[in-house]
TrEMBL record:
Keywords (A to Z) from UniProt: LIM domain, Metal-binding, Zinc
Keyword Zinc: yes
Region span, Disordered: 1-41
Protein name stated in the entry: PDZ and LIM domain protein Zasp (Trinotate prediction)
Native organism taxonomy: Eukaryota, Metazoa, Cnidaria, Myxozoa, Myxosporea
Gene3D superfamilies per UniProt: Cysteine Rich Protein
Domain of life: Eukaryota
The keyword Signal is assigned to this record: no
Organism of provenance: Myxobolus squamalis
Record SUPFAM superfamilies: Glucocorticoid receptor-like (DNA-binding domain)
Amino acid sequence: MENSPPKASVTRSGQDEGKSILKESESGKLKESQTDETDKVSKPIGYSGLCLKCKQMIGTNNYIKIGDRVWHGDHFECSICNKNLASIGFFEDKDRILCKECFGDIVSPKCGECGKPCIEKYVTASARSYHIECFTCKNCHAELNGKPFNLHNSHPHCMDCISNILSIKCFKCDKPILPNNEYVESMNKQYHSSCFRCSICSADLSGQGKYYIKEGNPCCSHHK
């Protein structure tokens, strides 16, 4: 009685390649504070409204105006730490005016590699954020922004390094079976699906479903 031939099962190797997205925070932009001085002659006292902090008329003092909000220059402070921002710039988060440090601590996502805040431009990949300069292969340090990658032990790796770390070798061509490659396993050996062919006539076996083993090698039904 003839034994039933094994069946070829095509498997997809490893994880899908990751994709990174370059983002620019809408609120995460350092803005310059512009201090204006009212003209006592041409503009009446108090024309610019009440200071948002002290509730007093601006009068002829220096002031800073953002939209319909206005402050005395020395009252233009970070909403969290009260640092004066009139000369160092500021960040906006909804109704809050923040210094760079508070914006980074409270609003900005943290870099998945160095742990520091990602302000302004940064990369998101696999639900994590990275500084552009931090988004590199953990093994060879190649830049990964805009390039395919995979995570290993929670760190991004380029495809060459991830192949050397994770991949299995094709029994036929001895080249790595890369993540996301299709492969066939037969007799505890792995083959690229394109390498899984009859050892005698080179007929493609990966899509045949059934094949035979002859002298330890796969072969088609014509050479069983």
